[in-house]
Design goal:
This protein folds into two domains: about 130 residues, Aspartate Aminotransferase, domain 1 (Alpha-Beta Complex); about 240 residues, Aspartate Aminotransferase, domain 2 (3-Layer(aba) Sandwich). The protein is built from 15 helices and 14 strands. Helix 3 packs antiparallel against helix 12, helix 13 runs parallel beside helix 15 and helix 14 crosses helix 15. The longest helix has 20 residues. The protein is globular. The N and C termini lie far apart (about 60 Å). Pathway: Porphyrin-containing compound metabolism; protoporphyrin-IX biosynthesis; 5-aminolevulinate from glycine: step 1/1.
């Protein structure tokens, strides 16, 4: 087949038109090349032809505690590569299970007070694979009650489960959730799928109250703690640990890529649930396992975070300091109790323009968040202060936002 014949396929024209539409709507996303300086976090190099290796201060990273640049974590990865090589060499069933995988799964299960844990290659895959596998079990017929603001990975897993139904309840609205649970057939298997910390608005679910409804209506609970693990609770077990309700949640899912600063996802639960997922989840079975270097780094990180509560204390001291500086300057933002600080813009093109000018004029990187990640009219900069953001960095950001937003 010639190139001309291939390019005549209608999908080529569709892509071109779709890309033009995305550009016109102000939703076209372009990558910003950033190279983190491990010794100077949160300073990165912004590599462009015009300004190679220009230092910028990054305000939108998800390495909330900076564990990815912790020397003990980095050294664990280096040692593992030297001893075991760069890759895992196979799936978990084909020469890809290392003692480090087993140790990390046990550590994560213990962190959440569960009997067992299972590693996945990412948080997205852990949600998609686990939810889809559970909701296609027992010959289907499941009804999932899904929070209106659940992550795309959860939605993908729920929608991918053939033979199951999904009922969306209003975000963090317990009354709406209960009314929908009460109206559902009593004999249908039910699941409530929700998050602890929601990544765009930074608000937090009432986990205990949701679990109480689950018990009342005999529903399984599936909790995504990806933006909370490492950051909440005495050992970093998440909001469920902080609130003392982890034992009431059936399945707790998390990531190793945010609070723990490395890579990978996982679920923890009753040992039979985990064993079923291990034997039935295609997203686990048919994927090459995480490299030993990544697992070693994650294991070191989880152990440090569990032991060292000062990291969480420092994070929230910085968050509260930054929120106060924004408030004093009159910058519009959503006040939350989480580590996520959304600065509201309200227009897609303006949001992109503010982000661009922050980078080009002030050497500050802040990710613009537009539709479909947030509703139209709710565009924002999603800022995540961490323990390494100094008062001077905060003042620079506040002054830049004042100049760009409060003309």
């Amino acid at each position: 087949m010639t190139e001309r014949t291939i390019s005549a396929h209608p999908f080529y024209a569709y892509c071109k038109t779709a890309l033009q539409d995305i550009e016109q709507q102000g939703r076209y996303r372009r990558f910003t090349p950033l190279s983190r300086r491990s010794a100077h976090y949160p300073i990165y190099d912004n590599d462009t032809p015009q300004q190679p290796e220009r230092p910028v201060v990054v305000w939108s990273a998800n390495d909330y505690l900076g564990m990815g640049i912790e020397p003990e974590v980095m050294n664990a990865a280096i040692t593992a590569i030297q001893e075991y090589g760069a890759g895992a060499g196979g799936t978990r069933n084909i020469a890809g299970t290392h003692p480090l995988h087993v140790a990390l799964e046990a550590e994560l299960a213990d962190l959440h007070g569960k009997e067992a844990g299972l590693l996945f290659v990412s948080g997205y895959v852990s949600n998609q694979a686990s939810l889809q596998t559970i909701l296609t079990s027992m010959s289907g017929g499941w009804i999932t009650f899904s929070d209106q603001q659940n992550h795309a990975s959860m939605i993908a897993g729920i929608k991918g489960a053939k033979g199951s139904d999904c009922i969306i309840f209003k975000h963090n609205d317990l009354n709406d959730l209960e009314s929908k649970l009460a109206a559902a057939p009593k004999d249908s298997p039910k699941m409530i799928a929700f998050e602890s910390v929601y990544s765009m608005d930074g608000d937090i679910a009432d986990i205990g109250a949701i679990c109480a409804l689950a018990r009342k209506y005999n529903a399984l609970t599936y909790l995504d703690e990806v933006h909370a693990v490492g950051l909440y609770g005495k050992q970093g077990g998440g909001v469920s640990e902080r609130d003392g309700v982890a034992d009431q949640v059936d399945i707790i899912e998390g990531t190793l890529a945010k609070g723990f600063g490395v890579h990978g996802g996982y679920v923890t639960a009753n040992k039979d649930i985990i064993e079923y997922l291990r034997l039935a989840a295609s997203g686990f079975i048919f994927t090459t396992s995480l490299p030993p270097s990544v697992v070693a780094a994650a294991l070191a990180s989880v152990r440090l975070v569990r032991e060292q509560n000062w990291r969480r204390e420092k994070l929230f001291e910085r968050v509260h300091t930054f929120q106060q500086k924004l408030k004093d300057a009159g910058i519009p933002f959503i006040q939350t109790e989480s580590q996520i600080v959304p600065v509201m813009i309200g227009d897609a093109n303006l949001c992109k323009e503010v982000s661009r000018r922050l980078l080009e004029e002030y050497a500050i990187y802040a990710t613009p968040i537009n539709y479909p990640t947030v509703p139209k009219g709710k565009e924002r900069l999603r800022l995540t202060p961490n323990p390494f953001h100094t008062d001077d960095m905060m003042d620079d950001m506040v002054n830049a936002l004042r100049a760009l937003l409060l003309k």
